[in-house]
């Protein structure tokens, strides 16, 4: 089993990467990190993570799930990325687990997979508009799982988000 973690090249939210990465490692689930470009990515709080793949190098068929990290960089670098949008649609259409935290659920809304689905997100005026435009049924909870789409509202929910993502991923495999 292997997961694809997507982070922005700059200003991703550190704990939204580190908590899921540690939980995946502990669960014995492998992962690759991809961004809009290969190389060192910098978090909002100073963490550095090496993206071994650019989005255009990813072969979605090799992964069982996708997890998109939030933070300010998600809005700047990921919301408008056409490759990521197509990838999210591909994962969803093939019934694989799709997860996003903080500002990253907007990527799912823009990909059209949240229409009629319960979801949560980091609430800002622009993200709220995007989530509504995407047809999400917004829920005021830390983490929401609806039909193998897992969303979370921010860094404080990172550990719970990771746990629900892993449980959903492993349940999908049985």
Structural class: alpha/beta
Number of strands: 12
Q: Helix and strand string, N-terminal first?
A: EEHEEEEEHHEHEHEEEH
Cα-atom radius of gyration: 14 Å
Describe how the helices and strands are arranged.
Blueprint: E1 2-6, E2 10-12, H1 14-26, E3 30-35, E4 39-43, E5 48-51, E6 53-54, E7 65-68, H2 72-78, H3 82-93, E8 97-101, H4 105-110, E9 118-119, H5 125-133, E10 137-138, E11 143-146, E12 149-152, H6 158-173
Parallel strand pairs: 1-3, 1-7, 2-4, 3-6, 7-8, 8-12, 9-10
Antiparallel strand pairs: 4-5, 11-12
Helix pairs in contact: 1-6
Descriptive terms for the model:
174 residues, alpha/beta, Rossmann fold, 3-stranded mixed β-sheet, 6 helices, globular
Describe this entry's structure for a reader.
There is one protein chain. The chain is of the alpha/beta class. The protein has a single domain (2-173), classed as Class I glutamine amidotransferase (GATase) domain (Rossmann fold). It has six helices and twelve strands. Helix 1 packs across helix 6. It is globular and about 35 Å long. The termini are close together. The model has no long low-confidence stretch (mean pLDDT 97).
